[in-house]
Amino acid sequence: MDRGYAATRLGDIADYADLQAGSLYYYFDSKEELVEEVLRYGVQFTHAHVRTAVEQLPEDATAGDRLRAAVDAHLESMLELGDLAPAHVRTFNQIPPEMQDRLRTARRAFGKFWAELVEGAIDAGEVRSDLDPYIIRLFIVNSIERVAEWHLRQKRSAEELAQIMRTMIFEGAGIGAGWSR
Amino acid sequence: MDRGYAATRLGDIADYADLQAGSLYYYFDSKEELVEEVLRYGVQFTHAHVRTAVEQLPEDATAGDRLRAAVDAHLESMLELGDLAPAHVRTFNQIPPEMQDRLRTARRAFGKFWAELVEGAIDAGEVRSDLDPYIIRLFIVNSIERVAEWHLRQKRSAEELAQIMRTMIFEGAGIGAGWSR
DNA sequence: GTCTATACAAGGATAGAC
DNA sequence: GTCTATCCTTGTATAGAC
Questions:
Q1: H/E element holding B61?
Q2: Domains of chain B, CATH where assigned
Q3: CB-strand contact A3/C, under 7 Å
Q4: Are B96 and B32 in contact (CB under 8 A)?
Q5: Residue B150's pLDDT is what?
Q6: Structure confidence at residue B178 (pLDDT)
Q7: Is residue A178 within 8 Å of residue B181, measured between CB atoms?
Q8: What percent of chain A is modeled with pLDDT above 70?
Q9: How far apart are alpha carbons A139 and A137 in whole angstroms?
Q10: CA–CA separation, A71 and B174 (whole Å)
């Protein structure tokens, strides 16, 4: 679905599955249903992966540890999902509005989880409190989601990318103070 | 073009321009040509805006000042372009490959300008030198480009958004050291 | 310049054979 | 379950009137 929702023909999908276009209707009632299933899988997979990673931390993990773990796990999901990750990120605003509504519940649940992580880290004094938590969350999640889109010239390992993202997200690009002036 | 390249019908565009679909062919030879023109305008407008902002800085501006100015100007462009900004960002990977090739020259020129700003700031010791400059650039530009997509609940002024973006990009979300460990 | 009417192509969906 | 053939809708593009 790299090329967008409407541009992706059932024939393409069928090719990918080594089937003929018509055969897809044995499994799905419509193209919409098929796409919805794929997108829903993407959110739920990622949500589950991130949540598990956070919950598996030891009892004494700080709010910062939890947030860091979430960044790593979310990034891992993006990389593991392969083509599916960018598909989901890119495609959501292209699908029919009713479908967006149906998927929104799943997306909101994941967003809420993220929001709690960010707010927890702010309350613990580990994330800056001078910006809107909502914006901080958007910024972080957006950064992670787009990584899957970077067709990097040098292939980098998941660990390497995680390290880079953590640095940029939490420490920023600048050196020393006064950058935001 | 919120809904993607293929999903955007000539009829929609015609409606927007208070015309009938057929009338568009007086101005353009094809849908492709029309879209290409719109996208090209977007890159060039932004490139020009950012370049001008940077070049208008006083002689004694540091590499950091230049980079900061670029962030502000790029963000301003995104906001000024209105619907056109997300259209460009979202649509590029959906358009036919030959069209991507034709637009790539304009995009590369802008990318090169950005790369020089980032590298200048690294050389001047104002941006961290422990990460790949290419990645730093992707991260920064991506962050700016997506802001136009945030349908923020509270409307924020351009200055306010610029302040937020500068803080997140250069200082990061974290407090204190040790975040990237 | 902009309209209406229409030709033409493409793709989603259905039917029925195997 | 998967195929092939076909229907039907939609959307790009063209023609020609005004």
A1: none
A2: 29-171 (1.10.357.10)
A3: no
A4: yes
A5: 86
A6: 63
A7: no
A8: 97
A9: 5
A10: 13
- How wide is the angle at C-alpha B158 spanned by C-alphas A126 and B134, nearest 5°? 65
> Which tokens in the block code for residue A126?
């580990």
Which residue from A minimizes the CA distance to B96?
A3
Model-level pTM greater than 0.70?
Answer: yes
A170·B163 Cβ contact <8 A: no
B94 touches strand D (CB under 7 A): no
**A176 → chain B, closest CA residue:** B126
Tell me how far apart the alpha carbons of residues B1 and B34 are, in angstroms, rounded to a whole number: 12
Instruction: Let me know the angle formed at the C-alpha of A121 by B168 and A134, rounded to the nearest 5 degrees.
Output: 55
pLDDT digits over A70-124, tens only? 999 999 999 999 888 888 888 998 999 999 999 999 999 999 999 999 999 999 9
- In order, the DSSP letters of chain A are -TT-TTTS-HHHHHHHTTS-GGGGGGT-SSHHHHHHHHHHHHHHHHHHHHHHHHHTS-TT--HHHHHHHHHHHHHHHHHHHTTHHHHHHHHGGGS-HHHHHHHHHHHHHHHHHHHHHHHHHHHTTSB-SSS-HHHHHHHHHHHHHHHTT---SS---HHHHHHHHHIIIII-SB-SS-TT-
Assigned token pair, A23:
């055969």
